Amino acid sequence: MNYDRPVHDIPTLEPLAIGASKNDRYIALRRYVQQLVDGEPDWLANLANVAAAINDRVPGLNWVGFYLMRGSELVLGPFQGRPACVRIAVGRGVCGTAAASQVSQVVPDVTAFPGHIACDARSRSEIVIPIVVDGRTVGVLDLDSDRLANFDIEDRRALETIVNDLEPRIDWSAATRV
């Protein structure tokens, strides 16, 4: 271990004005996430901090985290929330569908999604953003809410932007190593 390396200070999260719009929240979250991961090479620490930042800033969440491709399946990565499903087959459930199709999934009512995997019975809506590097799915960002229709196109666009910002800042080969 290199104990001579300076401590990576946690950046200060910008305070939001009362009544800040969803767009304003996501702009602040995006800046915060960039500050959290800039200069930190450890993929695990970065994804853990990103999950915590999203959990702190996106209203109505009961779970947020990453599933990472390990071999031919998604395996639970850093998250915030109750214990979750550890392994998900590609193509199965919302996460597996996003991984297989490489298309974000916005599900207003998880009970209406064929094959939904209920890791937490409280979840009512879900959004999953695939993480694709060089044409290959390396993982997904998964957010669950105990509210119906908690996510919309604005959430999808903002979270896709955050994932795109993360792609070059994370060592995905290390994160997906079996």
Q: How is the topology of this model organized?
A:
Elements: H1 22-37, H2 43-57, E1 61-70, E2 73-81, E3 87-89, H3 93-101, E4 105-107, E5 125-133, E6 136-145, H4 153-166, H5 172-175
Antiparallel strand pairs: 1-2, 1-6, 2-3, 4-5, 5-6
Helix pairs in contact: 1-2, 1-4
Helix content: 25-40%
Question: Counting H and I runs of at least 4 residues, what is the number of helices?
Answer: 5
The overall number of domains is 1
Strand order in the sheet with the most strands: 3-2-1-6-5-4
Order of helices and strands: HHEEEHEEEHH
Count of DSSP E strands?
A: 6
- In percent, how much strand structure appears in the residues? 15-25%
Structure report:
It is a single chain. The protein has a single domain, classed as GAF domain (Beta-Lactamase). A hairpin with a 2-residue loop joins β5 and β6. The longest helix has 16 residues, at 22-37. The protein starts with 21 loop residues before the first helix and ends with a helix. It has five helices and six strands, in the order ααβββαβββαα. It has a six-stranded antiparallel beta sheet, with helices on both faces. With 178 residues, it is of the alpha+beta class.
Please provide a brief summary of the model:
With 178 residues, the chain is of the alpha+beta class.
Question: Which features does this protein show?
Answer:
178 residues, 33% helix, Beta-Lactamase, globular
